Amino acid sequence: EDPRDALEDAERVHIVLSDDHAVDALLERIAPAIPRSAIVVDHTTVAPQPTATRCERLEAQGVEFLHAPVFMGPQSCREGSGMMMAAGPRGRFERMEAALAAMTGNLWYVGERNDKAAALKLLGNNMIFFMSAGLADGYNMMRAVNLDPMEAFELFEHFKVGNSVQFRGKAMAEGKFTPVSFELTMARKDARLMQETAENGGLRLAALPAIGARMDELIAQGRGSEDFTIIGADPRVKAAR
């Protein structure tokens, strides 16, 4: 009933909670009872800024801490599969490496920047959300033309949409938006066709209208001849004219 009771003679402490507030509340309660020879590993999905602050605070208290968020559902936890990232001092990670590797199929040490794994976990979940939202819109578009989503899903046995992350994702990260095959004005036309197809069938799309609005903003700025991935340009940087 008191989590401090579980800490006696502990070699390592694993935390899996809901959010930053829960992690901080627990650590505040248990920190004095954590054996100084133990390493605390937090697997919670949390925000980068509080993670950096948390690490600094614990270091000042003499608590050794690693952040190791996971892409693992219940089944992969049981099987020791899935993926785990770890961020923190290299020597500390190396002391924990064997134990963490036994918990997952893919253990990735992302480096000593304490908040990096937290940031990457949010990026990964962001992609899961957007892929799911894209599928939701796409399936509604299929329903609008009386095509069953299960039948439509066959497309992905032939069209490997994940390749776009490797191809377009790298160019976007590098800030390269020279048209390769799909300029923004033509992409906007396709987005309009998608929305019209759904609406003509009496169904509404949730994510695509926001993407279309962003495309319209950029076209109005005179950027319609650039690659459609310009929607991902750094908004803090003005385009050179």
Descriptive notes:
The protein has 241 residues and is mainly alpha-helical. It has ten helices and six strands. Helix 9 runs antiparallel to helix 10 (208-220). The longest helix is centred in the middle third of the chain and has 29 residues, at 116-144. The chain is elongated.
Write out key terms for the chains shown.
about 240 residues, single chain, 10 helices, three-stranded mixed beta sheet, mainly alpha, three-stranded parallel beta sheet, 6 strands, about 50% helix, elongated
- Going by helix content, strand content and strand pairing, the class is mainly alpha
Instruction: Give me the side-by-side strand order of the main sheet.
Output: 1-2-3
Q: What is the rounded Rg?
A: 23 Å
Q: Beta-strand level of the residues, as a percent range?
A: 5-15%
- Give the termini separation: 64 Å
Number of helices: 10
Instruction: Look at the structure and give the mean pLDDT.
Output: 95
- Reading the helices and strands in chain order gives EHEHEEHEHEHHHHHH
CA-based shape: elongated
Q: Helical percent range?
A: 40-55%
Ranges where pLDDT stays below 50 over 5 or more residues in a row are none
Give the beta-strand count. 6
The major sheet is characterized as: 3 strands, parallel
What is the topological layout?
Blueprint: E1 12-15, H1 20-30, E2 39-42, H2 48-60, E3 64-67, E4 70-71, H3 74-79, E5 83-87, H4 90-101, E6 106-111, H5 116-144, H6 149-152, H7 155-158, H8 163-173, H9 184-200, H10 208-220
Parallel strand pairs: 1-2, 2-3, 5-6
Antiparallel strand pairs: 4-5
